[in-house]
Amino acid sequence: MSQWVVILAGGVGSRFWPLSTPTRPKQLLPLIDSHPLLRNTVERLLPLADPSRILILTNASLVEPIHALVPEIPRANLIAEPRPAGTAAALAWAATEIARRDSAEALMLSVHADWAIGDPEEFRAALKRAARVAESTHALVTVGVVPSRPDPGFGYIRPGAALPTGGMQVAQFVEKPSRDLAVDMVRDGFLWNSGIFVWRAGDFLDEVRANTPEVGPALDAAHGDIDTFFSLVTSISVDVGVMERSGRVVVIPGDFGWDDVGTWAALARVRTRDEEGNAAIGPVHLLDASDNVVQAEGHQVVLYGVSDLVVVVRDGLTLVTTTEKAVDLKALLEALPRDVRERP
């Protein structure tokens, strides 16, 4: 059975301001190592699919930068969404493209472009296990990540009964819980809802038509035209619009060092750190400093006698905050003058 990979690479990633901009968003930035996140994602997935069977869905303004970053992916496989319309619509269109170019029976592996994966080999092994279950059962398979901590920033899955064909039924999806509830769920064997999905293209489209009125009717009304399709859909996530409504969802556990790199502070978990716990990229000098996250582009940065800071330097603009405050930069961005906030 043929196998395709779909990478969701839209969005701006404003929580990585000032490094992230509309023309250079998070997925195009070297946040974990010297390579942009999307480049790392493609490298992890090339052993699973030929470049001709990798689709990247993104914003129209990012098609050319992405093409320059991953030239092995055919230009026709970089699909520009006419407008943001949620992951249900994006994945439905990708499934339609796979069915049109190949077959409704083709397997579709869906991931995001901005994750950290500590063990790529085990990551691919989990995707292969999910593909075998999707192929044999016609289920919508999600890979639930074994939690490394009780994190209230993630969604969770409660696994149900084990299935003879592999995987487990999904008993419950839980949106971002309180910290106390997250502690209880990790203790009780819940998995992180990673957003890693595997299914046959046709099976997914069947479930969208049956369960997702926000998207399903547009599939047939668009007659294969992407602009018409995106003009007709109502924005909804695939988790809410499909996975929580379908009776064909199966979860398999995966443990491969997955992390959703959502904030500057999160980089302390996924970057290589020095003996004092500092996670720094660029020309950075540290003395008597610990547990800092530093990103320096083109300028020397010196930290002395400080801890738990986030320092970002880019083109003459410097952000200094604490790891606690870096979790949410919304209040800061709203208070800044527009010419500072929206620097290209």
Structural summary, described in words:
This protein has 344 residues and is α/β, with parallel strands linked by helices. It folds into 2 domains: 3-260, Spore Coat Polysaccharide Biosynthesis Protein SpsA, Chain A; 267-341, no CATH class. The chain is 30% helix and 27% strand. The protein contains 12 helices and 17 strands. It has helices at 37-45, 63-69, 86-101, 120-137, 179-187, 201-211, 216-221, 226-232, 238-243, 267-270, 330-335, 338-341; strands at residues 3-8, 54-59, 78-81, 107-112, 115-117, 140-145, 156-162, 168-174, 191-200, 249-254, 258-260, 279-281, 284-287, 293-297, 301-304, 309-314, 317-322. A 5-stranded mixed β-barrel has the order 6-9-7-8-10. Strands 12-14-16-17 form a 4-stranded mixed beta sheet, with no helix packed on it. The protein has a two-stranded antiparallel sheet with strand order 5-11. The protein is globular.
